[in-house]
Design a protein that fits this description.
The structure is a single chain. The chain is mainly beta and 190 residues long. It has a single domain, classed as Lipocalin. The chain has two helices and eleven strands, in the order H-E-E-E-E-E-E-H-E-E-E-E-E. It has an eight-stranded antiparallel barrel.
Length: 190
């Protein structure tokens, strides 16, 4: 009986070791977006993204991700436009300083691709979105850390989240393409 209990404890420990928690590196991660402006595409990004990815390579459906985006980090390479995007006309950064994503399910769709379904919250409006996600790679980082690189895309409607009011309907498209680039690190326990 003691051997069975010891074996079950080893199996349980091995299962918990297969999932690793990676911390998103805000310096090497960003969330970009693009949408139509009149007759061309307008692109921008948020440069401050934090969060964690709990990735289980042996059982990807058990993986999770949570991320927070600092709205004040929006960057378009134009200070005046950045200020307008932060205003109440669009993201209202003073009232809603962050946006967030929390996964609800992961579905493996290929060798290193997943459909990650979760709740995206912008301006206190929460909608379910599916991120088409790719694990770009895994490799050694500094100080013994293991790094992972991720890319994800989705499309949503800005009007669903109350971003940009009726006065912006004509010059701006409603459909927004989101592109996420993440580098995340895991440092093994000593």
């Amino acid at each position: 009986m003691k051997r069975i209990i010891a074996l079950l404890a080893l199996v349980s420990a091995a299962a918990s070791l297969s999932a690793e928690t990676y911390t998103i590196d805000p310096v090497h991660s960003s969330v970009g977006f693009s949408l139509r402006h009149l007759v061309a595409k307008f692109t921008s990004s948020f440069t401050k993204v934090t969060g964690t990815i709990n990735y289980d390579a042996a059982k990807p459906e058990a993986s999770t991700v949570e991320a927070t985006i600092a709205i004040d980090s929006v960057s378009t390479a134009n200070e005046k436009r950045d200020g307008h995007l932060k205003s109440a006309d669009f993201f209202d950064a003073a009232k809603f300083p962050t946006a967030s994503f929390k996964s609800k399910s992961w579905k493996k769709t290929g060798e290193s691709t997943f459909d990650v379904t979760g709740d995206l919250t912008i301006k206190e409006v929460t909608k379910e979105v599916v991120l088409k996600t790719t694990l770009i790679g895994t490799g050694p980082g500094m100080g013994g850390a293991t790094l992972t690189g991720w890319e994800a895309t989705t499309t949503l409607k800005r009007s669903d989240f109350g971003v940009g009011g009726a006065s912006f309907v004509a010059p701006l498209g409603d459909e927004v393409t989101i592109t996420v680039g993440i580098e995340a690190g895991h440092k093994p326990a000593k």
